[in-house]
Amino acid sequence: MVGAGLAGALLATLLARRGWQVDVYEKRGDPRIQGFQGGRSINLALAERGLHALRLAGGDDEVMAQAVMMRGRMVHFLDGRTDLQRYGRDDSEVIWSVHRGELNVILLDIAQQAGARLHFHRGLASVDFDRRSVAFEDDRDGSLHESAFESLVGADGAGSALRSAMNAVSELGERTDFLGHSYKELEIPPTSDGGFSIEPNALHIWPRGRYMCIALPNDERTFTVTLFLPNEGDPAAGVPGFDTVRNGEQARALFERDFADALPLIPRLEHDFEHNPKGLLATLYLDRWHLDDRAVLLGDAAHAMVPFHGQGMNCAFEDCVALAEHLDSGADRAAAFAAFQAQRLPDSRAIQAMALENYLEMRDRVDNDDYLLQRALELR
Ligand code: FAD
Q1: Can you give 302-353 as a three-state secondary structure string?
Q2: Which of 46, 101, 102, 239 is the most core-located residue (most Cβ within 10 A)?
Q3: Residue limits of the FAD-binding domain (predicted)?
Q4: What does CATH list as the number for 6-71+95-176+282-365?
């Protein structure tokens, strides 16, 4: 398996528990030793789809012990009013905010306990599909390490190196659509007495038409704020973009104008804005996810999506369950990979489309009176 991120570690657990021999190669170091170095989206919304997979892997109790419940969207209007829009009728229909680094550490632990062998500092360098031989590079000294394989699983994320290697021998029909919007993460620290600064059990949204901010709670009582802006603003229409909001001072001016109630909550706004990387947003489409019985892709490597439905990880976890079940079916490996693709490719396309639609909904509709009336009627 290539990649010991969220999908790689979960699938390794599911397969090792079924008695498969699994070796997982991860290009980064072990986050349990050197701390998590994710570099993007500090926390994630975990929904029932993902939770179901965690239950099957036996990781749900530990994950839920650090999860923060989000029972709905807390919409922050321009005038400072707020409105909680529940996701369901009651607290049986909620989503959960989980810390990406803590989640990854839990998943690595359970994968190892299940018998998967984890190899860190092993970035995929090259694959010889004819000889079924793969080479990994150690990022510390550049040394190369070869291994034989029966099948490779690509859980190495949106920039998948395995996908590139597969594409080189057989076209996968790859297409990437960039959204034209990017994001920056900022932090709301705890209050001076160690509490949450705003309502903890909600996903906060500051919708502003063509752009927005969101904030998800963390169990250490901080919030991770994500500012989504177009790459190119439209000054004539008063729409900011990352081309006009380029430094901390300009970010402060934007917050003073558009997110005034959030501004006092983010004391290190300038620092965060200038030091945190800008993340790109894109949707990845493939026509094929496998190369006969030799390689298969899943998670972001197969279908990266924009984050507005909070379903990328949840969908990746569903892939893991589906692939483990198809491999168990007794079909030969190539047929199992084909059946997995036939099941999950249309599902992932649907979720990708909903994720794109939800950007419009979150940034432009949740503060709209007609929308609020419709939601109220739906929930009655
Ligand atoms: P990744 O998590 O990217 O893991 C890939 C792993 O492979 C990494 O450990 C990486 O180091 C390793 N790797 C990469 N290249 C190599 C190589 N060459 N060799 C070996 N190893 C390699 N999803 C949700 O469900 N809910 C949310 O709320 C949510 N919010 C998000 C917010 C943002 C801003 C973003 C960007 C994404 C969000 N997502 C969310 C999506 C989610 O992050 C991804 O869908 C999820 O991480 C996919 O898991 P993965 O294991 O496929 O890939």
Answers
A1: HHCCCHHHCCHHHHHHHHHHHHHHHHHCCCCHHHHHHHHHHHHHHHHHHHHH
A2: 46
A3: 2-327
A4: 3.50.50.60
